[in-house]
Amino acid sequence: MKWRSIVPGASLVLIVVSAALLSYLWTPFDVATLDIRHRFTAPGAEHWLGTDHLGRDILSMLMVGARTSIAVALVAVGIGMGIGVPLGLLAAARGQSWVDELIMRGNDLVFAFPSLLIAIMITAVFGPGAVNAIIAIGIFNIPVFARLTRGAALSLWTREFVLAARVAGKGALRISAEHLLPNITNLLIVQGTIQFSLGILAEAGLSYVGLGAQPPVPSWGRMLAESQTLISLAPQLALFPGLAIVMTVLGLNLLGDGLRDWLDPRMRRER
Amino acid sequence: MLHYLFRRSVALLATLVVASLIVFLVIEVVPGDPASYMLGMNAQPDTVAALRAELGLDQSRTLRYLHWVSGMLHGDFGRSYTYRTPVADMVADRLWVSLPLAIYALTLSTLIAFPAGIWAASRRGRLADSAVMGFTQLGIAVPNFWFALLLVMLFAIQLGWFSAGGFAGWDSGVLASLKSLTLPAVSLALPQAAILTRVMRSSLLDVLHDDFMRTARAKGLSARQALLRHALRNAMIPVLTIMGLQFSFLIAGAIIIENVFFLPGLGRLIFQSIAQRDLIVVESVVMLLVFAVVMVTFLVDVAYAWVDPRLRHQRR
Amino acid sequence: MNYRYCNPTLLLLMCVAGSALAARTDITVGMVLEPPNLDPTGGAAAAIDEVVYANIFEGLTRFGPDGSVRPALADGWEIEDEGVRYVFSLHPDVTFHDGSDFTADDVKFSIDRAMAEGSTNAQKGLFANIDNVEIINPEKVAINLKQADGNLLFNLAWGDAVMLDEASAGDAATNPIGTGPFRFDKWVQGDRIEMVRYDDYWGKPVKLDKAVFKFISEPTAAYSAILAGDVDAFPNYPAPENLAQLDADPRFSVVLGSTEGETILAMNNAVPPLDDIRVRQAVAHAINRDEIIDGAMYGYGTPIGTHFAPHNPAYLDLTSKNAHDPDAARALLKEAGHETGLSLSLKLPPPAYARRGGEIIAAQLRDVGIATEIENLEWAQWLEQVFKAKDFNLTIVSHTEPMDIGIYANPDYYFQYDNPELQALMTDFGSETDPEKRTGMLQQAQQMIADDHVNGFLFQLAKTGVAASKLKGLWENSPTQANDLTAVYWDE
């Protein structure tokens, strides 16, 4: 039964989240302290994952870096869903009107700018930083959710149970909230999962090109960028931040998948 | 359908106009003067002013906007501030890298994703399905630039099969060029293929629940026949949407990959131009990408309407 | 032997074998940055000179590998009227790559163009003291100065003062036509520039017949390009961390040389709290140069205690004046009333010395109680915010112009150091021609800026070059930004 992927998924996410939370209280080493004489230490008893080019403890940096990743991606998905889903429902409800047209064209417009371009342009204007990364990723999430919601809602509007609700005199708003939203939750969870993982990946990508959180705040993407020239010298520097990203995204996706299989009434019926 | 096409075309134009305004205005407020950048730390103020005049930066914004837009309509994208060559030529050169790369990656990802998705859906719940889904999970979770880094570590530095980057140029042969695009295309394609496989599978499964599929099954078609004959066409809607999404992602996502492999593509051109404040290049290239994305969206929408006539009629 | 039986494959093999025996005559040089255009008189980008200087374009004088000024297109010169008039005799039989002759007209055109009102020459200041250029005959030209100037020959050696032909100068950005030993061939933008030998070159013929400059900004890619042999030489190799590995490999040689890059932690002298010399001194004592050189540059770099290149004979080692002494720094901060702490902005341009060095300096400053807010900037932003608007407390930058201590005499320069005494000294220096007195004045200036702790003086940037070990004749040092290929050959 696929929903059992909740267990490994949730475990992975739990590990990452608790590491991030723990880092507020304790890390094996202080990430702000440099120890250049002990740079490139191989993983071992003292530094479990070794040290980087400035002698900082990699495990500690990964823990603190987890905060940045999670916060940026979470808020960005929140922005995307919070704005995109209502817009999509509205567009579907006013299916034949200028409202729909306006929302969809507005979506197309945002959607027409590739996400990384938005990010680069925002940072060119306001300077690089975590907040601007959130905005950039968040903006790009809006049309994704709006389009998805509208598409799904539109096809639902032709279904019998919606027609029945309309015959019963329910307004578009009520139908959207009571009948459509619950029916697209599974879709939203799947998409939300993808967007969350994309959010983590996008944050890593932005920090990788230097547009995310600024030093000395550790971030996984920047750790990867800094490791790039050191691949042949200390491969672990390129390995661990990447594995941290994979672990987080994998965990979230497994969790999302499991939740979907568990929540989807149709699938449960079939079982 | 004709009416639908007309309406969508008008919307398309409006989108482009608004986008051009946004692009122009955003780039106008970007701090950093191209002339000062080009002349560096020892330049004298009158030299900078002279260069600004030479580049046409002393004209009013409205004039520059109109000039830019009317130029683009004639295919004239202006002249790069720093490279001093026509932007159109630069873009054309770069497109010969970026477009093949995007198509290469999209082809790879489709070739992987379609069979994998269909296979997984037809074996739902069985070992093959779990295996495919497991791989897609991993594929989605791997950042493409990290994957690229690992590919470079293995195939370029360890094995020496491919070079770590650079682009041979089409004049040195198609094979050599494709070879230099292979690692970048693979790193772009894998995560994309993983996503596409999942979408393919889940949309097939969604369709399988629909009533007409039950009817098809009731008519005596086998599960696989029903899947291939009926479900696939209906499942294509979300797949097409995602592919449209992915095309824009491929161009944008290629910015990072182009930088990892230092390919002389559009993405790296944008990156460089922003750093050099070569605003006219940034404006024109961004606008071009926007145009490409809007066109793809338009085509996807038209394809939607074509595949699913319900959508078309609804918009009457 | 009957040709009908000659196997074409065999012929091909013979050709290949033949070429393998002879020394190679082509080179691919790796560079980090691609030049935006190829007109050295129309932009400041160092990458322009790194491609064209001495290869495509030449000036009346030129820099040698040791930084000395040597004759180039000018055979010789005479200084008349107590140093206000320089008469140059031009080398005969010099042609531009398009076949036209190089004459006194071209000298007048090139210098007038650089000096002109609407000129876009990035180093227009080099020509500020020139009153006019006078054509005596096609092979003789005089430059009349406004006042005596010991720097003219030095100034004319810059890439910004190279000679162009009026007919082709307008297109120099994309199709440079000079008098040098190499002729521009093609530019694949974003990837490489190719040049070939110019057979009618006036000077000593070059041994290479083809040179390719390949642009690789990504250090890992630079590393693998060197390993794979895609690039024969990387004169300014971007990843000092790999140098030890490359040095151990017999296929490559690592060449360490000096540059004109004084790397400094620049301080905004006009804005509190750094207008207080005690705070500046505290910052200076908080800095541990060895740790920065080790951590950011992997040991490549020479500590400096003032703004002057250590390889210059006039250099004074003043590093003891601002040695690492955290206790002294804390005491000074306390004295200046900042015992509760202090927060300064630290704006960093893109190079690794700034980004890595910035993180290390931030940690060192924190150790004495100064918090820093790091902001990573692109060059365009840096020029706008730091250099132009002077909106910063601290920044790290390498000043790569040769002999640029004169910037301390300009109170409007971005670090805003205003000392009339030094300004007077540098004015006198400009008109002094006696070498010994000039040295004395330079040393006095070095003392002054060290005493005033104008900036944190970190290290002289090292030139870390990597090349195939069989490649000879590349410059070891970097007295100016150039990749002079005129003496390069393969020793096989």
Task: List its traits.
heterotrimer; B: 316 residues; mainly alpha; MetI-like fold; 13 helices; flat; C: 492 residues; alpha+beta; D-Maltodextrin-Binding Protein, domain 2; Dipeptide-binding Protein, domain 1; Dipeptide-binding Protein, domain 3; 3 domains; 7-stranded mixed beta sheet; 4-stranded mixed beta sheet; 29% helix; 23% strand; globular; disordered N terminus
Short description:
The complex is a heterotrimer of chains A (about 270), B (about 325) and C (about 500). Chain B has about 325 residues and is mainly α.
Write up this protein.
The complex is a heterotrimer of chains A (271), B (316) and C (492). With 271 residues, chain A is mainly α. Chain A has a single domain (3-12, 46-270), classed as MetI-like (MetI-like fold), CATH 1.10.3720. Chain A has helices at residues 6-25, 58-93, 98-112, 115-126, 130-157, 160-167, 172-208, 220-227, 236-263, 265-270. The longest helix of chain A is centred in the last third of the chain and has 37 residues, at 172-208. Chain B contains 13 helices and no strands. In chain B, helix 8 crosses helix 10 (223-260) and helix 11 packs antiparallel against helix 12 (279-307). Chain C has 14 helices and 19 strands. At the A-B interface, helix 3, helix 4, helix 5, helix 7 and helix 9 of A face helix 1, helix 6, helix 7, helix 8 and helix 10 of B.
In which range does the helix fraction of chain B lie? over 70%
N- to C-terminal separation of chain C?
33 Å
Number of helices of chain B: 13
The major pleated sheet of chain C works out as: 7 strands, mixed
The chain-level mean pLDDT of chain B equals: 80
Number of domains of chain C: 3
